[in-house]
Amino acid sequence: MNEFSFFRITGENQVEMSGMLPEDVCMALRKELPVTAFAVTEGDTVIGALAGAANGDFFDIASLYVAPPYRRRGAGTALMKRLFALLDEEELMARVELGAFSGDEPSLTPFLISLGFEQENIEYPPYFSAPLKDFRTDAETAEAGNGRILSFSEVPGELLEELCEDADGKEEQGRTWSLLSDTVDPENSFCLIRDDDIAAFAAADTAVGEPARISLVWAVEEDMADARIMLTQTLKGLKEKYHPDTEIVMLAMGPGAEEIVEAVCPDASFAGARFVRAYYEEL
């Protein structure tokens, strides 16, 4: 049986974990946000990492990675069991949403079930997916009112930073810090600026590679028309960048977001699954 050791990942040593943690997790560690991450080693070699954050009665696992040469040798299971020991002490349930999980593969389902997870339906926020060619972008002619549409590369950095700071301590925190991530495609992510503030945005994030992941978030007014304009702008850019058959995963976040997805792609299908493992008094 392989012998594994573990160490905690912090803002100071996260630079050593290049490729093993998503950039948004590394950024959260650097900003000293409430994220838990630890690595597994075999001998003197770091071979994998796990990261996530507590959310009420749950610990949401954001990423689980084992380097390819060391897979199927128990390292992933060892990481999870190390996490379970911590969570059982705190009486927290582990939760994984495959729609947002880096490196999603069908093989993860039996792996999670073997570790005591039970599959649940995702009620909110839902994920949808469809080939890029199926999204409608030519019919959107709505005006942005008195607002300005800017790509992330054109938006003043302080506005994005302010949006992230405003979400500090709220449920949106985990999603908004990624706006400043290096994995966001700045040329194909757009903000609607109104009264010198961000009224809505759609962000294309390549943290999970291809397909791109699109997160919809809008501030202040929760205006569905604004959000649809942002989504359309982002999809137009992606259609120029990716092959038409590229699968796009969308996070339908916020009131009425599902209606927006249906408006731009009636055939988009539900994507993702949630797995939950309850805590146990005895391992």
Q: How would you characterize this protein structure?
A:
By secondary structure, the protein is an alpha+beta fold. The protein folds into two domains: 5-121, Aminopeptidase, CATH 3.40.630.30; 127-270, Aminopeptidase. The chain is 25% helix and 28% strand. It has helices at 23-30, 75-90, 108-114, 157-166, 173-176, 224-241, 257-264; strands at residues 5-8, 36-42, 45-55, 58-66, 93-97, 118-120, 127-131, 148-151, 190-194, 197-205, 213-217, 247-251, 269-271, 274-277. The strands form two sheets. Strands 1-2-3-4-5-14-6 form a seven-stranded mixed beta sheet, with helices on one face. α2 (75-90) links the parallel β4 and β5 (93-97). The longest helix has 18 residues, at 224-241.
